[in-house]
Amino acid sequence: MRKTMADMGNLWEDLRRQARQLENEIDLKLVSFSKLGTNYSAHRDYDSLPLSTNSANSKPETSDTAPLLNKASSEHMFDTMAMEISQLLAKLTEVNDRMVEYTQNISTSSPSAALLHTLQRHRDILQDYSHEFQKTKANITAMREREDLLGSVRRDINAYKNSSSLNRRSDMYLKEHEHIRNSERLVDEQISIAIATKENLQSQGKFLNSINQKVNALANRFPVINSLVQRINLRKRRDSIILGLVIGVCIILIMLYAFH
Fold first, then answer.
1. With contact defined as beta carbons under 8 Å apart, do 66 and 36 qualify?
2. What CA dihedral angle connects 148, 149, 150 and 151, to 10 degrees?
């Protein structure tokens, strides 16, 4: 009987030791898990910050609050730590169940108050850890979903901006091409007008040359008519000179009479 009671006491102490060890591990994991959620939120805010453009070779500014892990690493670590904490919580639940079975299987009529208090304390710790784990996991999951949604919206906005920019560039290129075509058409019209004018001037020059040649031919063919025309021109010129002299003398006389 003493050996059985001793074995039962050793079993209880072993269960308590396992419970405390699991609780310490879970506590450390939950602290790291909470920090991971903070880093994930900081990474999301850090991604939205603009880069420094002080120089051509400038690099993104870093600070003490900048996360050391990128998004992919954070998500992988989140999944790994969540699985590890879930496994530790499952083990702690199993240990607590065994502690409950121990209190139900002891040979005494009823377990002591200290034993029940210890059991309740471990159960409360398990409940608090489970609640904290679920809360932190839900918060990080919500941030991930929100980040995925915002990332999808940003990608859609960037795609729309890129397509709008391409459409504007295409419209500008089309307008510029149309202006060039109109300019080429106007230049072609001006060249056509210049060529037509040149051809008309050449034809008129040829026509005048032919008339001049005909007149010279007639003058050479009828020298008497040519000499008669020259005499008529000389007489007309002489009459014009005489008429001009008479008119000039008359004006001078009139002016002298007027002043005297």
1. no
2. 50
Non-local CB neighbours of 42 within 8 Å, separated by 6+ positions: 65, 66, 67
Beta carbons within 8 Å of 184's beta carbon, 6+ residues apart: none
Residue bearing tokens 């040359």: 209
Which letter does DSSP use for residue 54 in this model? Answer: S
How far, CA to CA in Å, does 116 sit from each of 84, 88, 240? 29, 23, 154
Q: Categorise residue 52: left if φ over 0, alpha if ψ from -120 to 50, beta otherwise.
A: beta
- CA neighbor of 208 nearest in space, from 216, 198, 197: 216
The answer, yes or no, to whether residue 230 has pLDDT greater than 50, is yes
The string of pLDDT tens digits covering residues 56-107 is 344 444 444 344 345 566 677 888 888 988 899 999 899 888 888 887 777 5
Token code pair at residue 176: 């510029």
d(CA 93, CA 127): 9
Contacting residues for 77 by C-beta, under 8 A, at least 6 apart: 36, 69
What does the pLDDT look like over 99-142, one tens digit per residue? 888 877 775 556 677 788 888 888 899 899 889 888 888 888 88
Kindly give, in sequence order, each residue whose CB lies less than 8 Å from that of residue 211, ignoring residues fewer than 6 positions away.
none
Q: Cα separation of 175 and 181, whole Å?
A: 10
pLDDT confidence of 53, banded at 50, 70, 90? very low
Structure tokens at 227: 């000499």
CB 8 within 8 A of CB 102: yes
